[in-house]
Amino acid sequence: MNIKIRNSLFINTIVIALLLVLSACSNSSKSTTTSTKKVLNWMQTSEITTLDPSLPMDTASESQIIDSNEGLFRYGNKNKLEKGLAKTETVSKNGLTRTYTLRKSKWSNGQSVTAKDFVYGWKRTVDPKTGSQYSYLFSGVKNADAIMAGKKDYDSLGVKSIGKYKFVVHFDKRVPYFDQLLTKPYFFPENEKAVKKYGSKYGTSSKYVLSNGPYNLVNWNSGKNSWKLEKNKYYWDAKDVKTKTVNMSVQKTTSTAYDLYQAGKLDATELDSNQAKNLKNNKGFHLYSPDSSNYLVFNIAKNKFLKNPDIRRAISLAVSRKNMVQALGPTSKVANTISPAGLNKVKGHDYIAMISNTSKSYSPSSANKKLAQKYLNKGLSELGVDKVSFKISASDSDLNEKVTEVFQSQLEMNLKNVSVEVQNLPAKALMGRIASSDYDILSVAIGGDYNDPASILDGLITSGSFNYGGWSNQQYDKLISQASNEGSSSKRYKLLAQAEGIALKDEVWSPLFSMVDPWLIRENVHGVVYNSDIWDLKTAYVTK
Fold it and tell me: Which distant-in-sequence residues (6+ apart) come within 8 Å of 252 by Cβ?
């Protein structure tokens, strides 16, 4: 899973869940002989935090790494998983060995991309010293879990190169969705010489990385809000990259972005709910679903108040989700479960229908002032204090500020003896706080990395990479472990639903709402792929 920081809110991915090519605005079936422009002007809603493929925690960084690099697979038109650097793939009968033959390709410095680059990159990502928050995605690859637990050396990871262009992966268990994961930056090759040459500077600037993808990213330093993507002449599929230059800029307010769009300085703009309402009949109007939900994430380990489950229940009860989505507009809807609605179906029904409706003793949709105060008083008594105070942290986009304002006002209105301080932070600062668990309550959106509830729920186990709040529940861990080893799909989903019921009842992450993503994109923009809040610009082009 990853954290998503967006302008329309603050939403990272269920990466596999929904890929949408901009068919209405891109008309990708249009003849490629049409006269095209060489420049595309695109926007992101938050700044890049890193270009190190092992380290991105946000969709802004992930998008730019995907545009400038490539792994074994990537997503293309109509939800299709396409081979990237993998020329062929062979899977053993027992599913425990996968062999990839690589295409001949080059890094942006002209050096060949080889199987050794994949071996090095994967081992570097799972090495605890690297500090990747997504190393857990390698679970199932031979010895990955032991390496991440510090029980084995990273060099024991079940990967090897045979010759220059054959890459072999061995597994401890079947991972049926593995190829889907290979679209993620954490599974990309890394040039060992470059990593060691740049040292701690690696990924902190466009001059301290190498590219092997459709574009080279240039003129970017940490904190900078504009940069360029220049066509990479060394990319193996350069013939399909029709755009020479993509001018990228960070636009945190939809009003500014829309003004730039109208002035012809942007070819696309994200919209807020009011703009979406006014522009919904525009031919360039589109709605995209990132298939993620927005939550309150409690720091259970470090905040003495929030360690108490009754305090957490009081906070959750004091927030009216219905009032919040009304304030945010028609592009949002109430979320009642940790797993997003519509993620996947079990025997024709949405998975979330399996989650016990008795996991909570109250409805999370509307504020319940009386019950909230009851839980708060109980928690205060248990802690031996008269009042509580905490900070809520979120990104600094205009709508995020609106969300935290609504949250603060509702809590202080519906709960006595509670004070709330709001912190709206730039993306990099927020990610730093999250990584170091330096927060009280987060207001963020989180999505998974593949189309399955486990993509999110696995992150909440005691040792989970995304269990920033330090929650621990032995029964939850046991159910998740049983689910990961269950061969029956129906039994596996039942185990996951039971685990999710425990996390909901304990208010680990309190679901708030989910959103669709409204955009206005010029009709002469084609071939842009939307991948659950990530824009892939490999095949993007603009007609004259």
Answer: 7, 45, 46, 396, 397, 398
Whose tokens are 């009081």? That residue is 314
* pLDDT surpasses 70 at 5: no
Q: What is the token pair recorded at 516? A: 């669709």
pLDDT greater than 50 at residue 230 = yes
Query: What CA–CA distance (Å, rounded) separates 80 from 489?
Result: 23
pTM exceeds 0.70 for this model:
yes
Instruction: List Cβ neighbours of 449 (8 Å cut-off, separation of 6 or more).
Output: 1, 2, 13, 14, 15, 16, 134, 137, 181, 184, 455
Q: How far lies 441's CA from each of 120, 335, 341, 515, in Å? A: 37, 18, 23, 20
Fill in the DSSP letter of residue 368: -
Per-residue pLDDT tens digits for 152-162: 999 999 999 99
pLDDT the model gives residue 288: 82
Q: Are 444 and 4 in contact (CB under 8 A)?
A: yes
Q: How far is CA 419 from CA 403, 413, 416, 465, in A?
A: 17, 10, 9, 30
Amino acid at 522: R
Contact (CB, 8 A) for 504 and 332 = no
Number of residues that this document lists for the chain: 544
Which of the pair, 109 or 7, is modelled with greater confidence?
Answer: 109
DSSP character string of 105-157: EE-TTSPEE-HHHHHHHHHHHHSGGG--TTGGGGBTBTTHHHHHTTSS-GGGS
Q: Give SS3 for 271.
A: coil
Q: Which two tokens stand for residue 390?
A: 């905490």
Q: Checking DSSP bridges between strand 534-536 and strand 529-531, what pairing results, if any?
A: antiparallel
> Each residue of 219-231: b (16+ CB within 10 Å) or e?
ebeeeeeebbbbb
Q: Give dist(CA 415, CA 411) in Å, integer.
A: 6
Q: Which of 103-107, 259-263, 285-289, 498-502 has the lowest mean pLDDT?
A: 285-289
Cα distance between residue 284 and residue 476, in whole Å: 45
Residue pLDDT, tens place only, 11-67 = 333 332 333 333 334 444 344 446 778 999 999 988 999 999 999 988 899 999 999
Look at 531 and 295; give whichever has higher pLDDT: 295
The residues, ordered by sequence, that sit 6+ positions from 212 with a Cβ below 8 Å of its Cβ are 69, 70, 85, 105, 106, 107, 108, 113, 188, 189, 232, 234, 235
- Mean of pLDDT over the chain: 88
Name beta bridge partners: 331.
Answer: none
**Amino acid letter, 51:** L
On the 0-12 / 13-18 / 19+ scale of CB atoms within 10 A, 516 is middle
Q: How far is CA 209 from the centre of its chain?
A: 22
The 3-class secondary structure across 209-256, one letter per residue, is CCCCCCEEEECCECCCCEEEEEECCCCCCHHHCCCCEEEEEECCCHHH
pLDDT of residue 489 exceeding 60, the answer is yes
- Both tokens of residue 9? 């809110």
**Cα(141)–Cα(536) distance, integer angstroms:** 27
